[in-house]
Amino acid sequence: MSTDKYHHLLKDKDLRRWHHDVTTGSKVTGDVYLRRLGSFCNEVHKTPQELIKLNEKALVDLITDYVIQKEKEGKAGSYIKSTIKAVKSWLAFNTITLPRKIKVANSDDTPTLTDERIPTKEELKKIFNAGDSRERSACAIVAFSGVRIGVLGNYGGTDGLKIKDIEDLEIDGDRVVFKKIPALIRVRKELSKSGKSYLTFLGSEGCSYLETYLLERIRSGETLTPESAVITASKLEIRKIKQHINATNVGDTIRNAIRNAGFQWRPYVLRAYFDSRLLLAQDERLIPRDYRSFFMGHVGDIEHRYTVNKGRLPDDMIESMRSAYDKSTKFLETDKKGLSEEELKQRFEEQQKALDRQFREQMLLMVGFTKEEIEAQNLLERTTEEIQHIVKDKLSGSLLKPEDIDRQIQRDKAELSKKVNGARQKIIPISLLEKYMQADFEFMAMLGTEKAIIRLP
Q1: CA geometry: angle 354, 358, 359, nearest 5 deg
Q2: Do 345 and 428 fall within a single domain?
Q3: Which of 69, 245, 261, 331 could serve as 126's disulfide partner, Cβ 3.0–4.6 Å?
Q4: Where are the beta strands (DSSP E) in 87-224?
């Protein structure tokens, strides 16, 4: 994808202006056009500036002779057409229009794709097994969510799918947690070919591969954040400097797994797999055509609603999409469909335990315990009833050490002294009333039977 060979052309101001104009629409197109124009000029022994000085007949004859020569050499019609398109772009930029159409035989032919077919489930499984965790994850995201390779890493390697873009994925310390499966993937407009954001999903098999890959990165010493790239460089020292890799690197990552499995397909065949498998699901009426099109990032009715809702579809439609995708995974995934009832039950119980521990810890922290005290006293392992008693005792002050009480009173005095008279009141446990009055606070009133209102004069 490098333009270094023809970078010297950009020394010409007119060429720079033209390249900037084309690149504004698409950097990929701008660089491809520069290479095509440079290659054409080398073949015909002319500079870009010499081209625009030719008269109409000489220009048409030159381009026609080029087409004839390339057809004799056996070049693909699509390649010749692409080159002529770049030349026409340069001419049009200089307000030159060819007087007649230049015809290219078989211009829509793509010989390299003629023998390419879409993998079967069994062949896709071989590709997964042939790759490492990084390659497997990249393959799974393209094959199971249908995103373009440029979504995982853009052309310049400056952006790509981030952990925050998989909205149901959370990194909790050294744990990777999917809150919902299928997991929602939101493709930002910056990564979308259409320039419009859209969403798709990743099922249980893809989530499993991705979980393994992310855990390996955590164990290698990498700190994952919401801004971390989903697919990144293989070496940790590179990841510390630059998270995202470019589309070519992503393609090479996927291609390596495909080649190791013994196939010669392009990486994009995995996106074709997603499209064709969902077409089968559509035929079975498991997923609407509009959903399938939207998951591919195509502009359509759903995209219109997405735009109208300012980038946010209604929650009920998102869940409808999730359900349709989930039903369709039997056509997509190479493993057994979904999780067993026992696995679902176990995952639910594990999630409930984690939530319960989080709630207990927050409750203890709120009443004044430190994390060190919670861990040292093994408080999170106590029963719910024991936790309630501990919290009540803490609030009443019975667990506070004398020095802790003195520090608390001094903090309250410093804080309240900054406020005006009417705001110098505080509610305290009745057990601490005497201590506060000894520290020059005034008693105001009782609040129930266990609390009192005091005031700093």
Answers
A1: 120
A2: no
A3: 261
A4: 169-172, 175-178, 183-187, 198-202
pLDDT of 41 > 80? The answer is yes
The answer to whether residues 254 and 287 belong to one domain is: yes
pLDDT in tens, 216-231: 999 888 888 899 999 9
Q: Is the Cα torsion angle 359, 362, 368, 373 positive or negative in sign?
A: positive
| pLDDT for residue 349 is more than 90 | no
pLDDT at 222: 87
Q: Answer positive or negative: Cα dihedral of 409, 412, 416, 418.
A: positive
pLDDT score, position 251: 92
Q: What is the dihedral of CA 350, 352, 355, 357, to 10 degrees?
A: -70
Q: What CATH number has the domain bearing residue 323?
A: 1.10.443.10
CA 50 to CA 3: how far, in whole Å? 21
Rounded CA gap, 254 and 267, in Å? 6
Both 28 and 98 in a single domain?
A: yes
3-state DSSP: the chain helix, strand, coil percent, rounded to 5? 60, 10, 30
Cβ-contact 330, 337 below 8 angstroms:
yes
Domain encompassing residue 307:
121-332
Q: Convert 126-158 to b/e letters by CB count within 10 Å (16 or more is b).
A: bbbebbebbbbbbbbbbbbbbbbbbbbbbbebe
Which of 369, 396, 423 is at the close of a domain? 396
The two three-digit tokens of residue 314, written as one number: 């209604």
CB neighbour burial string for 392-427, b if at least 16 within 10 angstroms, e if fewer: eebbebebbeeeebeebbeebbeebeeeeeeebbbe
**Domain end among 356, 376, 396:** 396
* CA separation for the pair 67, 80 (Å, rounded): 7
At 418, the amino acid letter reads: K
Note the pLDDT of residue 172: 85
User: What sign results for the dihedral spanned by CA atoms 182, 183, 184, 185?
Assistant: negative
Taken in order 249, 250, 251, 257, the sign of the CA dihedral is positive
- Rounded to two decimals, the pTM is 0.61
Pair (88, 106) in one structural domain: yes
> Do 171 and 318 share a structural domain?
yes
Query: Residue 175, Cβ neighbours under 10 Å: how many?
Result: 12
Does 93 share its domain with 31? yes
- Residue 436, both tokens: 């506060």
What percentage of the chain exceeds 90 in pLDDT?
Answer: 29
The total number of structural domains that make up the chain: 4
Does the N-terminal peptide bond of residue 314 adopt cis geometry, omega within 30 degrees of 0? no
Higher pLDDT, 48 or 391: 48
% the chain with pLDDT above 70:
88
The whole-angstrom separation of Cα 213 and Cα 193 is 27
Do 256 and 291 lie in one domain? The reply is yes
